Amino acid sequence: MISLIYAIMQVGVDPGVVTSPARAVPVEYNGSAGELQIPTPLILNADVQIDGRIEESVWETTPVLTGFTQYDPSEGVAASQRTDVHVFVTDDAIHFAIKAFDTDPGAIRATMAERDAMTRSNDYVRVILDTFNDQRRAYAFSVNPFGVQHDGIWLEGGSGGRGGGGFGGRGGGGGGGGFGGGGGGYIRPPIDDNPDFIWESGGRLTTTGYEVEIKIPFKSVRFADQPVQSWGIQVTRRIQRNGYQESWAPSFANQPNKLLEAGQLLDLTDLDPGLFMEINPVVTGSRDGSLDAGQFVRDDPNTDFGLNLTYGITSNVTLDGTYNPDFSQVEADAGQIAVNERFALFFQEKRPFFLEGTEIFGLPKQLVFTRTVVNPVAGAKMTGKMGSATVGYLGAVDNIDESSDLFVNLLRVRQDVGTASTIGAIYTDRTGENDDFNRVIGVDGRIVVARRYTLQVQGAASWDRSSGTETSTGQLFYAQVARAGRGLTFSGLFEDLSAGFLPESGFIRRLAEAHAQTQVSYNWYGGRGSLLERWGPSLDLQGYWDHDELWDGNGWQEATGQLMLNFAFKNNMNLWLTTSLSEFSSPAQDYEGLVTRPHEVCDEGQGCWFPSEAFVPAENSFGGLRTFTAFVYMSGWEAVRGRISANFKEEPIFYRPTGAPVEVADSWSGDVNLTLLPSRFLSMELGLRHSVLTRESDGSLYSKAMIPRIKAQYQFNRALFVRSTVEYSFAESNGLLDPLTGLPIEFCNAGVCTVLGPTATNDVLLEGLISYEPSPGTVFFFGYTRRMEDSEAFAFERVQPTADGLFLKASYRFRL
Question: Where does the DUF5916 domain start and stop, copy by copy (predicted)?
Fold first, then answer.
């Protein structure tokens, strides 16, 4: 009926083309009534200023998306606030004007924030465009009330987030992602935030809420090369003070693929991005200092030039090339406590070239982690979608040292199957100049069944040869099944990595192990506005086995059972309470080389000495270990947002080279991260991580660590900010002791024994940055970093510099 009315009102006008207002009242498309098919008008010579003032007469003739419904915390009920979305296309862009009404406009959360950094603390609206209409991948454009932008790629089955560099979940993907929310909390939608697109936005607060305008050039998105096409569209809105999530097309928790719920922009005709080429010259300069033989010396200033090129082969295939790319990052990684950590810590990718256009490499187990490319000289990428197949290639020359280069090639193919499923293959190769190599080939699939269940499978094999050794091989297998739902959800996974599996282009924390896990949860809901909007329990059971021990029929090395209660309160506050029991064991070979000297032996001719005896802990020393955790997330207050956690854990003290448990310790830890917003332009982050481990055998201290961090940022406007960071990283650990005798444990190798004694660090980090980024790729950075070492913990006496660096970056993104 709506389409018929629209057609009647356009009588006498070329269908799909509007040159002047043809009606006084725009046609409304009510999402809650299922009116999700939108004939999209083409308006030529539209004179629209993207300033957040919806005053031009052209908006009076455009379709209006209205009738939003809430999907969190309540589902399927009318939205708490009205939202109207106008849309039309011109010959080179798609335009949106959004009126976000609010009955309490003074409570709207809006700050002048850095790009891509506002969605956790601000109100915003998000436009999701499925330009290939394949219900698997879409562009996400978000705008806060001041027009601050956030963008990325929505990838069904992905884990979302920024800077992953690995393009996949670190422990496995789920059945799909929501739009965010989760009973007033923040659940990350499956959006890869790394790509930055060039588009325009403007916004302003009004007496009735806020208004935003968006213009997305066709050059900034990829779409099918077809004369007439349809795009999927969804528009969502987040109201930060209460955590409410609302959408135009109704959304339900039992649907794992949210893009299947989207509406349709119809009659998009002869879309043409024209010639698409971008040239991005980059100039960087730096001067580094370091401690050398007790003297602090500075290197000569270093200036470098790089060039990035992007060419749109077609509207759906893009080629990127780079020479001498800028792979610097403008902010240090936040400190992580590692005094009793058995496995490698994960640090996010922050280098621009590797962050954009590579979401296709996403897999449940990370076979691609671009931080493994350490010092690239040149790189190339090609990504695109041809029919129902998506292809991606990334190659780089990595100058790992002055004498040799490493050649990296990554190839990925993914094929759409049915309405929402995919199958794919991946190949990674790292080849050195001495016939050393590491190669991985893998296949994967994501199958959606009955619009509620998701099955993900992945298999891979690796071949590795280094330093003239024989080629070693290994295999990986991964499978996960998940059920989406508003009340009941569950998932189960099994993964197995053989001892020879080595993915040097990826990041997998635990190798040569098998892992099984099952999770089940149930939620009850209160009414909208209730003090308790949602609560429910969840149960998580998991175990780890040595790969060979599993298939020999032996027991696990690690097992955990965890019960969690989640309470989502009114005004966007969440509380999680967790308790668990754990058990650890380790094979005898993990203790090889560990010895103690408990007995004195005397010989009349040779004197007295303490011979070494192999250390092996008593049986059943690491069972029934308890954990209690409380975690609070707050995001409803105007001036303070943040999270606080406290944790008590009985955990083993590990011999870190093999991960073997040595003795049991009581661990007390806490983590506080608060964001203070004293004004719309100033933000401060206060962070504190603290950990203490005491031995259960005698109550003595094994380790303690504390990392306070302060970051302050002043945002002058959407493009310009200054930021400073101060971090102090204190960590100390005492030596390993035999819990029965209290004697030191030594490590012996080839007749040489070393006491595993104490360590201590007292590192100080200072950073300052001036950033000007009017649009992605056009930037000016000027920053300074200084690392120092304190003589004692928090003494601030005789603080000695260990390294510093002054850096500058300037680039301009030319678009043809």
Answer: 302-373
Report d(CA 797, CA 806) in Å as an integer: 25
| pLDDT of 186 over the 50 cut | no
SS3 340: coil
Distance, CA of 379 to CA of 409 (rounded, Å)? 10
CA distances from 143 to 148, 429, 507 (A): 5, 40, 33
What whole-number distance in Å separates Cα of residue 444 and Cα of residue 456? 7
Per-residue pLDDT, 194? 83
Tokens of 332: 């240090």
Average pLDDT over residues 535-555: 93
Q: Looking at residue 351, what is its pLDDT?
A: 66
Residue 795 φ/ψ, nearest 5 degrees:
-80, -35
| 759-793 pLDDT, tens digit each | 899 999 999 999 999 999 899 999 999 999 999 99
Tokens 């989760």, located at residue: 182
* Mean predicted confidence (pLDDT) in 304-326: 89
DSSP state of 79: P
Interatomic CA distance for residues 757 and 638, integer angstroms: 49
- The dihedral over CA atoms of 164, 167, 170, 174, expressed in degrees to the nearest 10, equals 120
Q: pTM for the full model? A: 0.87
Question: In sequence order, which residues have a C-beta less than 8 Å from that of residue 280 and are 6 or more positions away?
Answer: 307, 308, 309, 310, 777, 811, 812, 813, 814
Residue with tokens 């203790």: 591
- The CATH code that applies to domain 2-163+174-269 is 2.60.40.1190
Eight-class DSSP state of 260:
G
CA–CA separation, 689 vs 672, rounded Å?
7
Lowest-pLDDT range of 79-88, 179-188, 227-236, 286-295: 179-188
Residue 328 has a pLDDT of: 53
Bridge-based pairing of strands 17-18 and 42-43 is parallel
